[in-house]
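Give me structure tokens for this 324-residue protein.
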Amino acid sequence: MKMFSLYRYKDTDLEKVLNTVDSINDWAEIENDPITDESLEFKFSVNQSYNVKLLDENKKVLFLEFRNEKLSDKHKYNPDIKKRIRRNDSEIVLFEEGTDVIVVPLRGKNFTTGSLIRTALNINKDKILLNNDFEFNDDFFYWIFNRYLNNDGTISSNDEFLEVTSLTSFSGETRDTVNKIVGDGTRISEILWTLAFLFTNETLKSITPEIKHQVKTSEESVSEIIKLDLTLTGSYKIDISNHIGSRLFTSDTHEKTCYLILYTYDILIPKLKEFYHDDLNTLSWSPQIKKQFISSIGSEIQDQVNQALIEIESEVQKEFLNRD
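Here you go.
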């Protein structure tokens, strides 16, 4: 899966960004290697624009690959080039939203990522590059759990179809344990995993659903299946290689990446949030229902355990009689 994070570049547009990219030789401050006296790499190795059709709307998307070498402050004269020179590279997807540009570096959210964007796009002013996280909370993740286990994954089946077709999740900060629920798995395996997951002492930090979205536009029917790793930290992942839908046979991976990230940002996540808030407003989901959801899993587990104990006792009795 490909990692990404989200930033908002205020009060600009793609044309201005492209002008900055194209004039890189005019503003770039390129360092020289003190050992070899060669110029360090500072360039865009990929600069490609796409017109992406998103349902009934066409949107321009820019795909960049920024490559940047920097001298290490502590080891700038070290003969080992790996210690002397640090790389800070990233692929970047950009598209407009209102009067801003959404910047999507294909790497996790941290201080270094923000610094890379400022360097790549020659951003010198403060407060114009902002975090633009999806702003999930753990209750939203529990709602997806409930929808998957108790509603066959179905979220909406009216004018458009939205379904959680499988679920993979990580518990806690360290993410040491990976557990998977798949749509064709048995009920007992699903609830056993879920009970163990929900009753850990660590906070639910991320959830990885595979989402199926189907909708009819004025021109065609669109069906996309996209797997996402959603977190509370601002670092997300998207499965590009195993996507099933309109870009399945697209050979240009840059175009496919642009489309899937734009589809996720503009359509999939807003739809999930819309239905989550609808359930909150109609009280189809609430703290009480969440408590009942966890309790029902516990009861079902207990029933299954009791049945298993009965079967084991029966096997023991049969073995004992056979010995006689």
